[in-house]
Amino acid sequence: MGSDEQKKTFVMKGIPVSPGIVIGKVYLFDREDAQVPLYKLDAPERIEEEIQRFQRALGESENQLLELKKQLGDLGGGMEPLYIIDVHIMILKDQKFIDRTIRNIRELGVNAEWAVRMTVDRYREIFAQMKDDYLRGRFSDIQYAGQRILANLGGRKRPIIDTGAEGVVIIASDLSPDDTAQMKIDKVLGFATDVGGKTSHTAIVARSLEIPAVVGLETISRSVRTNDDIIIDGSAGLVIAHPDPEVRKRYEDKKSLYEKAQDDLLDYAKLPAVTRDGYAVEIGGNIEFVEEIPSAIAHGADGIGLYRTEFIYINREVLPDEEDHLANYRSVVGVKGLSWATIRTFDLGGDKFFPDRKPSRELNPQLGLRAIRFCLKEMELFKVQLRAILRASVQGKLRIMFPMISGIEEIREAKRILMEVKGELLAKGIPIGQEIEIGVMIEVPSAVIVAEELAAEVDFFSIGTNDLIQYVLAIDRINERVTYLYEPLHPAVLRLIRQVVDIGHRAGIRVAMCGEMAGEPAYTLILLGLELDELSMNPLAIPRIKKIIRGSTLKESKNLLEQVMKISSTSEIRAFVETAMRERFPEEFQVNGQ
Q1: Residue-wise burial string across 50-74, b where 16 or more C-beta atoms lie within 10 A, e elsewhere
Q2: Half-sphere exposure of 337 (CA within 13 A, CB side)
Q3: Per CATH, is 3-34+161-262 categorized as 3.50.30.10?
Q4: pLDDT above 60 (res 173)
Q5: Considering the entire predicted model, what is its pTM?
Q6: Comparing 201 with 404, which gets the higher pLDDT?
Q7: Which pLDDT belongs to residue 85?
């Protein structure tokens, strides 16, 4: 190997969003060439065939460019386009480009498409280090040549990731729901992205899959390339690229210790979440996919506290019909081992799109036509979902939850449509369950202000802290430039939560929390002190939360809360709470470096 292959270990610090440690190889995800397949060549003769495929694609690419050059020359119009084509032809003939690609095929035993991708990635790295803006911009010529070779290789459509028994660590600038839906997820060992926060899509997916993830790294996608060695510490928020043998060994030891700690915590999974002085809290699991239900049960969820149904729409060529919805809901309602299921009607619109709908250009999608606003506008889509939910309700205890309710008119209209659909089903003799509760998500500040009126309309509240904090503090929760302002312990946030709980209890209804705040161990005593009836979280967090609840009392939690509510500075509140939790649970807050 040449000297350019010698790599120095470097460490990047980001936002830890899914705990655990993974040691593996990089897969640099680029949406523009995401369909490049990867597969291993299992015999020497296949390697030689793959090299010949690559060489044929080079020849075809050169012939195409020569033909294009002739056509442009016949049309006239200046020499610049012809010079650019000459540059691309030179790249196709460049011996270093060719040799590196062949070496990738031969030494790594990978297909020609992937070998080309790795060569282009290497040139991307070299050009990114150039100080001259003009030269740095010329990488686009290499990228163009690479894309032409890939187009001529074509004809082998495979999943984005197909690595046999091996898995990969996905590195990307960002990942959308559609990106992750396309991946062969069982081959993904971990995630690291340039942007994002604790409640970004990447974070939620990683926690759901129980794989380590770090986001908000700013430049990770420009700092590594495919097949590099990498370590992700999703507990400490660290990414270590090109680890030397000593660093690698240290993290192998850390990985086994972490896994042992997780095994120990699972002892608490099946125990009830009851404090030492007898205060019981129901524990729900948040899920995106029905495939996560076994994990929710294994980690000790009493029920499903939040089923995010918009993921039914992801990665589909046509809209799901009523039967598609019904099949999903039947997998969630009445499942053995779960006492209830809370189905949230879809939170689509804004920046979440689906088949047959072109995205509207909204300057502020989080404040735009989304969630219940979208449902009330696209009423037929809404009715399809409600019919399926009601049909599934015969299987067990079901809660229907409407998202982003901002006032009394929206919940009354949503209920009216629900009753209309219910009447239609009953008229056709279709049975409907008796144990259906209706609730609203409290995630818009106006909903807190009119909570008393809303309480008269519903059976329960569920506080969605992800959006509530975003709207109360006026920050974009996935913008890494203002992540430091996203603070669940902000006095305004705590006062709003207390207000919602007090109003709900006075009205005789239950109050849950289903935002990410519910699954953060450092906040557990504060939430106990607020006397929430239910905490719903990513299933992986449940055993640790149960352990803390079972080791504490409601009395001490209320005392801690009262002290916190007297502090006006957010940073002082955080320091006070972290110190109190560390002193109260010293072992628990050292396991993962917290």
Answers
A1: bbebbeebbebbbeebeeebeebee
A2: 14
A3: yes
A4: yes
A5: 0.67
A6: 404
A7: 79
What is the pLDDT, as a whole number, of residue 157? 40
According to CATH, the superfamily of the domain at 269-584 is Phosphoenolpyruvate-binding domains (3.20.20.60)
In the chain, domain spans = 3-34+161-262, 44-153, 269-584
> Catalytic site residue 88?
no
Q: Which of 88, 375, 490, 514 is catalytic?
A: 514
What local confidence, expressed as pLDDT, does residue 88 receive?
84
Write down the catalytic residue from 201, 299, 325, 490.
Answer: 201
pLDDT of 566 reads 96
What is the number of other CB atoms lying within 10 angstroms of the CB of residue 257?
12
pLDDT score recorded for residue 197: 80
Q: What is the mean pLDDT of the chain?
A: 85
Q: Is 375 a catalytic residue?
A: no
Q: Please provide the CATH number assigned to the domain covering 44-153.
A: 1.10.274.10
Predicted confidence (pLDDT) at residue 66 exceeds the cutoff of 60:
yes
- Could you write out the DSSP letters of every residue in 72-125? HHHH-S-SHHHHHHHHHHHHHH-HHHHHHHHHHHHHH-B-HHHHHHHHHHHHHH
Angle at 316 between CA 312 and CA 320, to 5 degrees: 55
Of the chain, the end-to-end C-alpha distance in Å amounts to: 41
